[in-house]
Amino acid sequence: MTWNMITGLIATLIGVAYGWSAWNLPRATFGSATGHIVYPVILGALMTFLGLVLIVKELLVKEKPSARNAPKFGPLTRHGKEIAAAIGASLVYAIIFEPLGYVISTILYLGAVLFLVNGRVKVARTVIVAVFFSVGVYVLFSVLLGIQLPRMPLLDI
Amino acid sequence: MNEALSQLFLGFQVALTPINIMWTTLGGVLGTIIGMLPGLGPATGVAVLLPLTFKMGPVGAMITMAGVYYGAMFGGSRASILLNTPGDGAAIATCFDGYPMTQKGRAEAALAMSAVASFIGGMIANVAMVFVAVPVAKFSLKFGPAEYTLLMLFALAATAAMSKEKILQGFIGMVFGLMISTVGLDGLTGVNRFTFNILELMGGIDFLIIIIGIYALGEVFKSFKSVHDPSYKMQTKFGKITFTKEDWKRSWPAILRSTPLGFFIGALPGAGGTMAALMAYNNEKSLSKHPEEFGKGAIEGLAAPEAANNASSVGALIPMMTLGIPGSGTTAVMLGALLMLGLQPGPLLFTKQPEVAWGMIASMFIGNVILLIINMPMASILVRVLSVPAKVLYPLILGLAFIGTYAITNSVVDFFILIAFGLIGIFLDKAKIPTAPLILGGIVGSTMETSFRQALMLSDGNMRIFHGSPITKVLIGLTIFSIAWPFIEGAIKSAKRSRTA
Amino acid sequence: MNRITRILTATVLVAFLTAPAFAQAKGYPSRTIECYAPSGAGGGWDLTIRTVSKTLTDTGLVKVAMPVENKSGGGGAVFLTALQSMKKKDNVLTVYSPPLLFININGTTPFSYKNTTPLARLITDFGAFVVRKDSKYTSIAQVIEDLRKNPTSVKFGGNSAAGSMDHIQFLVVAKAAGLTGLKNIQFISFQDNAGAAQLLGGHIDMLSTGLGDVRGLVESGDLRVLASTAPTRPSFGIGKDVPTVREQGIPVDFLNWRGIFGPPEMPAYAVKFWRDTFARMVKTPEWQKSCEANGWVQNYADQPEFEQFLEAQNKLAREILTELGMAK
After folding, report:
1. Tally of CB atoms within 10 A around A43
2. CA–CA separation, A55 vs A59, rounded Å?
3. Residues A18, B77: Cα–Cα separation, whole Å
4. C296 touching chain B per CB within 8 A
5. B342-400 per-position pLDDT tens digit
6. Distances in Å between the alpha carbon of A31 and those of A42, C126, C172, C317?
7. Which of the residues A50, A112, B262, C51 could staple to B276 if both were Cys, CB 3.0 to 4.6 A apart?
8. Any chain A CB within 8 A of the CB of B188?
9. Which residues in chain B have their CB less than 8 angstroms from residue A129's CB?
10. Could you tell me the residue range of the domain that residue B417 belongs to?
């Protein structure tokens, strides 16, 4: 399975799903009832068409999948695991951002990502960078520029 | 002509007082800093200044706010070039070739060229502001929904040409971008589209977030591999912030072409710096003799959007100054400030308060010179960010991407969108889908659709509205030309080749 | 170890002493008042709350800081949801106007003005129906007459979405003038305040907007106001030279009111403080000057009157939106 084939499949899927949900949008109650639907339906159809063309093209070309044009499946590499972990950390960050306030959540997040990349070496650097960045950005935004960021609970700063 | 000059002279008398020179510098520097910070653009910068401006008086306030506006255009490109994280919307196009230049070790040249292109774009636009503000404002009023539709179509058409080799993938990206732009409340019917009952999505997805996701997050995720590569070296030696003669030879035509384009797009209410920069980039790519170098560090691909976005920030002041209507988010805040200062923006501003209007225009000449002088040494400091080890820098870029996203909408919902587009960025890279068409589609999509429907409402469904006026005819011509040109050019080239062979 | 425990205890104690739950009614307000604009910077809500915050701090009526934060989205609905989690807080203020009612009626949000603590109505802007200087229309009655003959004959637009302010304020007038089939009247919504430019460029026939928004262009003579939706002509600004719809025989008015709201179940001491403070603020010369500069008409109403007003306005808005088929 080549990347182009995957692109074609995904595009077709998105095209159908998007077009279908566009078709099912509530009709407008005044003015033109379907004015807001025509364009998305066209986009959905167009996307489906483009995806199918790409699929057909790939089937005709019959390129041999290689490292260059096709993904490798199987267990995650170290690199893949790191990306997955970073994404996981980012998701956690999004969840704790408002409840914990900017400074604490950012220290935790940056600390996690820095640890992920640097491992057990230079832990001190990891901590210092995470704390300085979080506090620095907070001071710059909230104190100097007056752009409010989520405050820490309890302390209310 | 003479009258404009004598008014400008009056303006310089106002702008050259020490206190106003100070405000000009302050505004410009603050704007540069705010522009550099991801997510914070000129609109936020002006809003941040609001409480301070009350104490400055109208002249000082306008001078400082204008300084923030064009200063942000200078600053916005810094993060684009160095970190692949655009500081604001207008700096998106600067990523395309600015970051590849950095990767090639040419960050110094990129920073220097962006400052010089910004300077020239700003200066020429200032001159235009002095002499043609009123005619430009009148001409921009001729742009109704039909004209906007075609203008957006023209902007999109160039993308077809942009990705000649990967045309199918390019189109898929473009349609995806157009799809994203349909998310949100449809103003013409009051119906929510694709918002999945998430209130935060009603206002649509801010495209800057998508770009930060694809470029900054995507780039960092991809780079996790190279971080552990022992042969991977950080830049440790830095040259002077300057560019070569060859760079200049390639860039100056691009700057001169992009400036009037940026100025005019900026003067159109609702178009703005992002579109100006992207259209300038597209133009240069389709006109270039080496379109294949675009996206791989072509310096003219950096100079064009930089000149265009500065010129557009000047152009955007035109509807505000001459008509009292906001042409962009930033000028909307500036209008609010004018009101709070007790001034009445509108056509009479130039006659009733010439010292405010002309003082501000004159200060922009001074401000551009000051910013050019400040930006060169500042760049030589900023470029040292590249000497930060990748293992520290990349996590910090993640931190900046999130704070930038939060600064745009103050909403954590956008964090999830950001992460999703980071993943999409990885996929686009693996599947070799060009990103520029996706981004352009997303930015012009919503205006194109809404304008199209508005036009049909105005004409009671008659398509003639799209080719009735002279402007529409010219735009149709341009659109057809920009689609056909790469193919014509290709044909000419192969004809030449066969002749010489 | 012992020292660490002690430091920890101290920290926790300090944290709790400054915590919101322990805020005292006495000496209120003693800490930062969080002001929220439920929209982006530069809009009407933003301008109002910033002016309020500035006036209160400048006049010394409030001695603590009052920073303004923008929480935009959903036409104000995003912040209205966020406000629900600030229940009982005594240091939160926000601003709303008629869209607060619309977003509830049209189903955008389940929350309504009843899920807030209305504190005071401060100002009013009025709707204005504006045409180019060379337009054939000289009165709003002529526009209505043309619409009666053919609902798509007048191309009219505004800067709000369909079913919101600029659209509704005209339909209120049209309904009062006896026009039926409001659904068939097309409203062309423009984004980014492009409406005035579209009118000037001759692309639409009439713009429905706020009286304050087009002052510059009306003073310069480029645009003409057919009518304002004020009950009587205001005493200053361009409103004093503009006939009201009432004067033209249509017995209705539409107020673009703006008021200050607290979170639901705001503590009584805080409510009392803000009612008193706003009553004093509207009498200060600083506030009067800002209102004049912005073209706002002072229209102060204390809490009880404001609540009654909201109820009446809500009923009116529901009727119109129901007729449009937009009420949920």
Report:
1. 24
2. 6
3. 35
4. no
5. 787 888 888 888 889 999 999 999 999 999 999 888 898 998 888 888 888 889 999 99
6. 20, 25, 17, 19
7. B262
8. yes
9. 392, 395-396
10. 2-500
Q: With left for phi above 0 and alpha for psi between -120 and 50, is residue C67 left, alpha or beta?
A: beta
Report residue B440 as tokens. 């352009």
- Nearest C-alpha neighbor of B417 from the set B170, B203, B161, B233: B203
| Residue C228: strand pairing partners | C128, C244
Domains in chain C: ranges and CATH: 30-124+256-324 (3.40.190.150), 125-254 (3.40.190.10)
Nearest-angstrom CA–CA distance, B255 and B122: 11
CB B313 within 8 A of CB B46: no
Q: How confident is the model at residue B332 (pLDDT cuts 50, 70, 90)?
A: confident
Residues of chain B contacting residue A114, judged by C-beta atoms under 8 Å apart = 391-392, 395
* Partners of residue C203 in chain B, C-beta under 8 Å: 144-145, 458
Write down which chains contact chain A via at least 3 CB pairs under 8 A: B, C
Mutation choice for B interface testing from C68, C78, C132, C185 by most B CBs within 10 A: C78
> Please, are residues C258 and C97 in contact by the beta-carbon 8 Å criterion?
yes
Closest by Cα among B235, B220, B222 to B388: B235
pLDDT tens digit sequence for C294-327: 778 888 999 999 999 999 999 988 988 888 888 8
Whether the complex's predicted ipTM is more than 0.90 is answered with yes
Q: Compute the CA torsion angle C235, C237, C241, C242 (nearest 10 deg).
A: -100
Which residues of chain C make contact with B443, given a CB cutoff of 8 A? none
Q: Counting Cβ atoms within 10 Å, is residue C242 exposed (0-12), middle (13-18) or buried (19+)?
A: buried
- On whether the CB atoms of residues B50 and B333 are closer than 8 A, the answer is yes
pTM of the model as a whole: 0.88
B468 pLDDT higher than 70 = yes
CB burial of B289-322 (b: ≥16 within 10 Å; e: otherwise) equals eebebbbebbbbbbbbbbbbbbbbbbbbbbbbbb
Q: Hey, what long-range contacts does A61-69 have (CB within 8 A, 24 or more apart)?
A: A63/A2, A65/A1, A65/A2, A69/A2, A69/A3, A69/A4
Q: How many residues appear in chain C?
A: 328
What residues in chain C have per-residue pLDDT under 70? 1-26
Output the CA angle C230-C232-C235, nearest 5 degrees. 100
Per the structure, the count of domains in chain B is 1
